[in-house]
Amino acid sequence: MREVVVNRQIVPDTWARFSPEQPEAGGDRLYRLEEWQAVRAQASAGRAGLWVETDQDPEVLRPYLPELALIAIHIGSFADGRGHSLGRLLREVYGYQGEIRAVGDVFQDTVNELERCGFNGFSPRPGETAANLLRGLGLFSEAYQISVERPEPLFRRRLSHPSGG
Amino acid sequence: MYQYDEIDQRLVEERVARFRDQTRRFLAGELSEDDFRPFRLQNGLYIQRHAPMLRVAIPYGVLSAAQLRRLAWIARTHDRGVGHFTTRQNIQYNWVKLPEVPDILAALAEVQMHATQTSGNCVRNTTTDHFAGVAADELVDPRVTCELIRQWSTGHPEFAFLPRKFKIAVNGAREDRAATGVHDIGLQAVQDATQGLGYRVQVGGGLGRTPMVGEIVREFLPARHLLTYLDAILRVYNRYGRRDNKYKARIKILVKAMTVARFQREVETEWQHWKDGPATLVDEEVARIEARLKKPAYRSLPAGIPATLAARLHHDKDFAFWFRQNLHPHKVPGYTSVVLSLKSPDQPPGDASAAQMDAIADWSERFGFGEIRVSHEQNLILPDVALGDLPALYDALCPWGLATPNVGLLTNIIACPGGDYCSLANARSLPVAKALQDKFSDAAWVRALGPLDLNISGCMNSCGHHHVGHIGILGVDKHGREYYQISIGGAQDPARLGKVIGPSLTPEEVPDALQAMLEVYLKLRLSPAEKFTDTVERLGIAPFRDAVYAPNQEVACA
């Protein structure tokens, strides 16, 4: 089974794309929004996840968030930074608690910033390994800005530990 | 300069370590060229015509003597003994070797410097008034604001891959020496009687292919909201800026497409998520940064001109010209700021040799408090010189070619490196600059012209800021040959874009064209007090256009 990184652990990828031909198949299923809207009432056993693009309006997802164990944000090119904003919005504004997974053009050098923006799952692109992704995480011991990872800016920590300066 | 604490230091070192690893993997073939590109750009490294070019940030243009010596050392050790100061308060090295770049970044980190986000589609080095903190016309010292923005933007996780580059400028003086009108975000510090410090926020200015003056999105933003409001603007841009066409990807295009009113509403909506939240500034942080900006221990000096200086002014005409042209009024009595012109006829605009940099570092200690400024006009500045020291400083500068009395004049040419170095360029800038220096070698004539900004860019990217030059020259490529388009009437304060006077010219025609226009100006100006730009404003471009293009028609008729 393919390996992914979730919460800084290498784990098997249990998620498969939903297939309209086999709607009854069990297990963790990833749906496109229209698919989920169509089948959510009679969804089969197993967890549901949503596959979205980086330009997804999170407001549209609001009613479904409690039903979703995972939101996979498809990053077509790593230089498309919209997924970073979407991750933060889902966490900080919509309070989404499930897994946010980066899929698509994901490799060692892109995961550090994504994690700070609320992503906790990473699916390596072809040719990349989960072990490499782990190497790319947590590269910095501090950060100036607020983010999902650190909801307070560095200057507030400096205030509480003035010796650090 | 802001003095790092141990956290600032660690962060810059961790950044070097990351880039060292990326470079190693690139050289080992583990990271492809396409994947490596955005990361090297975000660490200042371009691949250029001859060699990689490294652009090092000089945050808000402030350097210590030790930092300038380190820049000299890099020029000597890793380049060909020269550095080029740019229009964005950076320094560029044109001959670095890729495998050495991590070592250069490590050497910079040792003196609290970096090349972070000097390129790439991210928030770039924040620029400001080169006389920040010392200018007599200053309302608010912008350096604290700049350092807050430097920290906020450094490694910002959400805005590492914006649609396009993003430039922020801050001004705190009456005169806008930071060109805030032509930046993605321009902040003008304002001191409000009841609300205290705040900013007038302008968004969507910029030069390049589609030059625009920014729109005011907020007349007064209380200072404590600075970072949350910037986050909101950047998020709207990150989410909605165009990514399908890099020529339409700057925030100015988004603001135009959305309209300012809708853009403001979107920003307000995003801002509500953060407003008054943890990133709202607190007085203690402002005070902490203020304390870490090294403050000179000024002596108490008499306000007037010391006798020795008066005597020198009386008997040395060249000294007097320099005194009149290259100084800027200081807020502390008895002191002045001195601009060291990097625009002598003998060197490309903005270039300084390693030896010059070392010498300037020494003078900054002898004639100041060990601080140097970099101006976006590509000169270096000793900000705190006692008036009585001016004769000695002048005598020291002259042998180094650093006392050319042309600051603010025609020959203070602002130019990008152009086609000699830059792979983006359509035409070369430096030979044109040189030809103009040679053509206008009569210093008295140049002085008679009064204040004139002459800006040269080698392509539409407009690094030479030709749109806001009183005279702007843009290099264009026509069927593989270099041509130059001339515009006039641009200005930086208040920001105004120049108008193109006619078809582009060959390199040989450019100096004569300028001469013809300037002679028309001398003839038509109402008095010597009417500046070139005022005459253009009053009469339009027609008389200047005719001066440049009419002679050829006469020849054709003859």
Order of helices and strands of chain A: EEEEHEHEHEHEHH
Give the uncertain stretches of chain B in residue-range form.
554-558
Shape of chain A: globular
| Major sheet strand order of chain A | 2-1-8-7-6-5-4-3
Highest CATH level, the class of the largest domain in chain B: Alpha Beta
Going by CATH, the architecture of chain A would be Alpha-Beta Barrel
Q: How helical, in percent, are the residues of chain B?
A: 25-40%
- Classified by CATH, the class of chain A is Alpha Beta
Query: What is the strand content of chain B?
Result: 15-25%
pLDDT < 50 runs, ≥5 residues of chain A: none
Mean pLDDT of chain A: 94
How many β strands of chain B by DSSP? 22
CATH topology of chain A: TIM Barrel
Instruction: Report the sheet with the most strands of chain A, covering strand number, pairing sense and barrel closure.
Output: 8 strands, mixed
Average of pLDDT of chain B:
95
Give the class of chain A from helix and strand content and strand pairing. Answer: alpha/beta
The N- and C-terminal alpha carbons of chain B lie at a distance of 63 Å
Major β-sheet of chain B, in short? 5 strands, antiparallel
Which terms would index this structure?
heterodimer, A: 165 residues, alpha/beta, TIM Barrel, 8-stranded mixed beta sheet, 25% helix, globular, B: alpha+beta, Sulfite Reductase Hemoprotein, domain 1, 5-stranded antiparallel beta sheet
What's the gist of this structure?
The complex is a heterodimer of chains A (165) and B (558). With 165 residues, chain A is of the alpha/beta class. Helix content of chain A is 25%, strand content 21%.
What report would you give on this structure?
The complex is a heterodimer of chains A (165) and B (558). By secondary structure, chain A is of the alpha/beta class. Chain A has a single domain (3-164), classed as TIM Barrel (Alpha-Beta Barrel), CATH 3.20.20. Chain A contains six helices and eight strands, in the order ββββαβαβαβαβαα. Chain A has an eight-stranded mixed sheet. The longest helix of chain A is centred in the middle third of the chain and has 12 residues, at 82-93. The N and C termini of chain A lie far apart (48 Å). In chain A, 39% of the residues are buried. The model of chain A has no long low-confidence stretch (mean pLDDT 94). Chain B has 558 residues and is α+β, with helices and mostly antiparallel strands. Chain B has four domains: 6-110, Sulfite Reductase Hemoprotein, domain 2 (Alpha-Beta Complex); 127-290, Sulfite Reductase Hemoprotein, domain 1, CATH 3.30.413; 307-400, Sulfite Reductase Hemoprotein, domain 2 (Alpha-Beta Complex), CATH 3.90.480.20; 414-557, Sulfite Reductase Hemoprotein, domain 1 (2-Layer Sandwich). Chain B has 18 helices and 22 strands. Chain B has helices spanning 6-27, 33-41, 65-78, 101-110, 143-153, 226-240, 251-258, 260-274, 283-292, 307-315, 317-325, 354-366, 390-397, 430-439, 443-448, 509-524, 532-539, 542-557; strands at residues 45-47, 52-57, 62-64, 82-85, 90-93, 127-128, 168-171, 185-192, 196-203, 215-222, 327-329, 335-340, 351-353, 371-374, 380-386, 414-415, 454-457, 471-478, 481-488, 491-492, 495-496, 499-500. In chain B, the strands form five sheets. Chain B has a five-stranded antiparallel sheet. A five-stranded antiparallel sheet of chain B has the order 3-14-15-12-11. Classes of the chains: A alpha/beta (165), B alpha+beta (558). The interface between A and B is large, with 39 and 41 residues.
